[in-house]
Design goal:
mainly alpha
Length: 123
């Protein structure tokens, strides 16, 4: 079942759990199918929570949503990711956690992705 963004946001920011599955992560994972169907609706959620001070929450956004958004919609969303990464230090930390999949591994896209990640490591 896909949770609505509003349902997930009711759990956030929350706190990481010490034991067992983290309900925040579980809820965020349910949004992943939206990457395929309505990425434009999901982008503001990624931008907002990927800029949150909670490192664990940012990691969930990076690994469950952002890297997969780029996996399927690199051309459309990388300029937005790049602009937010350059202007927002917390979102930059979120982007640093992302791995490369799908469209991100294509040579030209990979070059842009790594250039931005490398820039962040030198800051």
């Amino acid at each position: 079942m896909i949770a609505s963004i509003a349902q997930v946001e009711r759990l956030l920011p929350g706190q990481a759990t010490a034991e067992g599955p983290d309900p925040r992560w579980q809820a965020i994972i349910t949004l992943e199918p939206l990457i395929h169907s309505v990425p434009e609706v999901l982008w503001p959620f990624i931008a907002r929570w990927g800029s949150h001070p909670d490192e664990d929450l940012r990691t969930a956004i990076a690994t469950c949503l952002l890297e997969h958004l780029l996996e399927y919609h690199f051309t459309e969303y990388f300029p937005r990711v790049e602009a937010l990464t350059r202007s927002n230090p917390l979102f930059a930390k979120t982007f640093q956690v992302c791995s490369k999949f799908g469209q991100t591994t294509q040579p030209q896209n990979k070059k842009r992705f790594l250039k931005l990640q490398n820039l962040l490591f030198t800051m």
